[in-house]
């Protein structure tokens, strides 16, 4: 399991590639919720999503000349982009149903796209198979110490950017981001609470914390398409059990409401996965402890069609 | 003419009402332009626009119990909101053609709306007449020392938030914002250049700087509906002649492009008037001196219809 030292090493490695994104108070959201709401704007990253932190940190340390990833979206874009910068060949296994915009982004950075099935498990099997056949490294989207350490740089920055705060709300997919952030925050601000936020249709972390074991969600579903892995990883489960203070589930209506509020009130375009952590603050503010709350807006890769729908 | 002292006094007066808005680097815009682009996010203000700074500063100093403003938009909302907070009665003279959204905002803060003609000159005549008849104070949108000092707090914050920068790009309507900002910046960072940006269809400042006198633009027009006054004021002209280093004009296509780029790349929803100062950086980057450039994103009051059009 990475610790603060590994996160700090990652921060040096990714400097100049991933951005040190702004952490800003949103007066509109503060007024709306009666708290002081700070947004960590990962939608300002190159490729508009935090995933570049972990992917670049991982790939920059590989000796292999080529990498394979299985992804339907942001992780694939991050691996393609990082590989492009590092002069490595990337192959991304995507679902048969992948949307044109995502394929364009992946191929735009020179990665090869391979289609396989519709389930994440099918993609992972295919990806690992390709990696073995070609002597490539398989880059897991979250269950990897270097990936977690990379995502942890987001928490390191938060702790450096804001001297005092009570809670951090982090969206949970496979748990890479919250694992990394919680490692940094608990090391640097041990009194600060770290909460996960996940869709009610994909409650991996809630189920895992309750069972105190990894639980597979049979058919995860949500408009927050970055939060759909069916289970936590071994490492991310271990980090969350140790560090995470609780988890909120958000309904689809709440995620939609949070995405709209980010656009209409905070004037920030976030993808539903990136707006989801605002949902507890909007709809259950008294359940979020403390006055000063950081919301990790993990990404802004929303399709034009969905954005139009949200603003309509 | 107000100086830095008056701006600092205004900052104390408006504290807790207007927000100290974030100044953030946009890595997306920095990459796109090859500069370091910092956004001063006035779209994060209450009422989503900088106008609250000047209106509240002015109205808080009035002995009159009631105020009148002539406005088709943001100034009217700012006067209504500030009056509401200060317990004064506000009347806003709007054009016959005013859109529902703006009227709702003004009336939502308890102000009375009076319709008069379609030209800003007709509104001003009517507003001054009403003020005289009722013993109310008339609050000019820009040509007033207290309004200018209030807008100057935006420049004060920029100079406090960023230690070194080369240029500031400010949208120009009647010149209140650029007057205030330039007073602060020239006092605190005399080596920094301050540039205005105005629509090609409403080039009041360009014409005034060229003629070295106030020039009336016969029929100003632009999608940037906050930048349509037909002439500079006496005070704003005097401040700009002294402090402003130059002015860029932007075509409608460039303003549209800048508004789209703010949304699609920087992930910030700005109104066209607020995105306009990005236009020279996008379309004529070599004309903007220096490496570190601040763009004053003056507001985010864009109608839903226009926003949909821009994102489509």
Structure description:
The structure is a homodimer of 312-residue chains. The first copy, chain A, has 14 helices and 10 strands. The termini of chain A are far apart. The relative contact order of chain A is 0.16. Chain A has 2 domains: 4-49 and 144-311, 3-Layer(aba) Sandwich (Rossmann fold), CATH 3.40.50.1100; 51-138, Rossmann fold (3-Layer(aba) Sandwich), CATH 3.40.50.1100. With 312 residues, chain A is α/β, with parallel strands linked by helices. In chain A, helix 4 (74-86) links the parallel strand 3 and strand 4. In chain A, the strands form 2 sheets. A 6-stranded mixed sheet of chain A has the order 1-2-10-7-8-9, with helices on both faces. In chain A, helix 8 packs parallel to helix 10 (234-243). The A-B interface holds A 19, 21-22, 24-28, 31, 41, 43-46, 48, 263, 266-270, 300, 304, 307-308, 311-312 and B 19, 21-22, 24-28, 31, 41, 43-46, 48, 263, 266-270, 300, 304, 307-308, 311-312.
What is the topology?
2 copies of one chain form a homodimer.
Chain A: H1 4-14, E1 23-25, H2 27-33, E2 36-41, H3 51-59, E3 66-70, H4 74-86, E4 89-94, H5 100-108, E5 112-115, H6 120-134, E6 137-138, H7 145-161, E7 167-171, H8 176-188, E8 193-199, H9 204-211, H10 234-243, E9 246-250, H11 252-264, H12 272-275, H13 279-283, E10 292-297, H14 304-311
Parallel strand pairs in A: 2-10, 3-4, 3-6, 4-5, 7-8, 7-10, 8-9
Antiparallel strand pairs in A: 1-2
Helix pairs in contact in A: 1-3, 1-7, 3-4, 3-7, 4-5, 7-8, 8-10
């Amino acid at each position: 399991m990475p610790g603060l030292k590994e996160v700090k090493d990652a921060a040096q490695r990714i400097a100049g590639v991933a951005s040190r994104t702004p952490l800003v108070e949103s007066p509109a959201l503060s007024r709306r919720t009666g708290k002081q709401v700070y947004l960590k704007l990962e939608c300002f990253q190159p490729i508009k999503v935090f995933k570049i932190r972990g992917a670049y940190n991982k790939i920059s340390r590989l000796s292999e000349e080529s990498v394979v990833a299985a992804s339907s979206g942001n992780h694939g874009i991050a691996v393609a982009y990082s590989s492009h910068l590092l002069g490595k060949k990337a192959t991304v296994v995507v679902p048969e149903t992948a949307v044109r915009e995502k394929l364009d982004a992946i191929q735009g950075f020179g990665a090869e796209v391979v289609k396989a099935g519709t389930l994440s498990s099918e993609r992972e099997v295919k990806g690992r198979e390709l990696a073995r056949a070609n002597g490539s490294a398989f880059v897991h989207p979250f269950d990897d110490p270097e990936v977690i350490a990379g995502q942890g740089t987001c928490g390191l920055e938060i702790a450096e950017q804001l001297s005092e705060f009570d809670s951090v709300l982090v969206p949970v997919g496979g748990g890479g981001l919250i694992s990394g952030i919680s490692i940094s925050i608990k090391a640097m601000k041990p009194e600060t609470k770290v909460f996960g936020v996940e869709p009610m249709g994909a409650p991996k972390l809630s189920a895992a914390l309750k069972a105190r074991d990894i639980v597979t969600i049979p058919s995860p579903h949500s408009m927050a398409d970055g939060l759909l892995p069916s289970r936590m990883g071994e490492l991310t489960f271990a980090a969350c059990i140790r560090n995470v203070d609780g988890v909120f589930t958000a309904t689809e209506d709440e995620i939609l409401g949070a995405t709209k509020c980010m656009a209409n009130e905070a004037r920030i375009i976030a993808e539903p996965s990136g707006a989801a952590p605002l949902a507890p603050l909007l709809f259950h503010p008294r359940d979020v402890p403390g006055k000063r709350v950081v919301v990790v807006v993990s990404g802004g890769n929303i399709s034009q069609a969905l954005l139009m729908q949200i603003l309509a």
